[in-house]
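Teaching note: in complex prediction, the entire set of molecules is handled at once rather than each chain in isolation. The prompt given to students was simply: 'Predict the structure of this complex.' The entities are:
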Amino acid sequence: MGSPDFENIRIAARHEEGERVPLCEVLIEYPIQSQFLGREVTSDDLESQVEFWIKAGYDFIPLTVGMMSPGKVTDESAISKVIRDVMLKDTPDAEDQKSWNLEYTHFINNRADFENFPWHIASQLDFSKFYQISSLLPEKMKVIAVSGKIFTLTWMLMGFNNFAMSLIMDEQLVADIFRKVAEIQFQALEEIFEMPHVGAVWVVDDLAFGTGPMISPQAFRDHVFPWYREMAKRCHDNDLLFFMHSDGNLMPLMEDIIDIGVDVLQPIDPTCMDIVEVKRKYGDRLCLVGNVSNELLRSGSAADIEERVKYLIENVAPGGGYCVGSGNSVPDWAKFENYMAMRDATFKYGKYPIQL
Amino acid sequence: MSYLEEIQAAIIEGKHAEIEAMVSKLIEEDVDLNDLINKGMIAAMDVVGERFASGQIFVPEMLVSAMTMKKGLNLIRPLLKAEEAEPKATIVMCTVKGDIHDIGKNLVIMMLEGAGFRVIDLGVDLSVDDLITRVMEIKPNIIGLSALLTTTMPEMKKVIAKLEENGLRDTVKIMVGGAPVDRKFANMIGADGYGEDAAQAVRLARSFVVD
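The expected output is the structure of the full assembly:
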């Protein structure tokens, strides 16, 4: 398996064959990390987290900075703290999750709400873990900064139906919220760029349903993609890779995603995308990550997982530009033995040149 | 362009700011209101549904069309004879226990309301027992169940079993939807229908009412 070396990810991102097919995840929930290490791993225990990502065979550790983490919105999310501690301060609602969690409710219905939102407090992001972790990393291991959620945060602040209709009926309001959210995310990037132990930025921002894009490709071009393009440019200017995560069927957006400057796309949603077709059409311009179905990780057998990983390595890894990973992230409801089977099969079959 | 074509175009193009003036003018001109609804508005929403299913338009455009139709319907409904003004059916909608995803459910609600149904949104993460209690109170014609997760889909089966246990199964039609749900699953759990998207859900609800 070797020591962690972020160069393995860089080689894959250049669509070249390195020594082996890398493993890559944006998130592995703590119960899985705990089972792997045989002791409890918590969100504050950076040392154990680093130990997990090294021993499990990854070349990096993903670390979140920004207003919202991937996965669930929790009371730990920066945006939740802003809503609870500022907007709902001294009200009984601050204790009720349905009053502050953006998965249940929303806060910006109109321009007045936008103007009154405590943006100045939302922009105070916490980088402490980024500084703490630098001394824990082996020399060639890097941090991938999970940041830059622009589309999802905007619609969650507005509520999806309100957001969708406003996109047509009050386009300027939506554009202004996108701008405000993007400015905060860009501010975070500037601090990240000063950290030599960060190797990439990973935007986790679902753009599509299983049936296709959540808004029209043109609306993405008008309101979202210009921000990503700028983000990719700034990453590249600072010698960082630019990763993107989105669930759903991205096929109608693939040319745009490449044109923006995305280096690595994850997870090529196995419920609605054919990764072999994606590789055939775009594999020379984009590194692909993932596609081991989460449903298979939950309900399949270890043999099913091995077979799937073998198939992916055989069909997607040759020539480089592929990393093995889940079809989203590794949730706590995945069978641990299946997570291990995905990892083991990658080591078993993923040595270049691929001989399957 | 006939008045029906004009009203169809207004809904398809989502002319939400103009629809009330257009419908008011047609009411003054004493057009057949049933034709206006059925041949004008509902026909337009069928086109919207087809364009959404084929990827020509997306959720925002579909929602604005549904809202445009609802605005028009709200002007017409008070003028209909009592029996015609009644909503076609009452539908309760929810996302099942353990699942807080509501984008799909809310889209379906907008489309159903646009199509003239009375829809009661019971929210997300709804337990089977709470749903049964509300069904007993509301006595809906249709229940719509949504789930985004493979881990919460089995709740749909529990709902149907509990309805049967309480002697309520034959009083309602059940439609199911959500990313991991498909027709095979709907059949397996004994639902009456499956909608792949919001437009299909409307067609399904209409078919239940005709039945």
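Point out the following to students. Chain B has a mean pLDDT of 91. DSSP finds ten helices and five strands in chain B.
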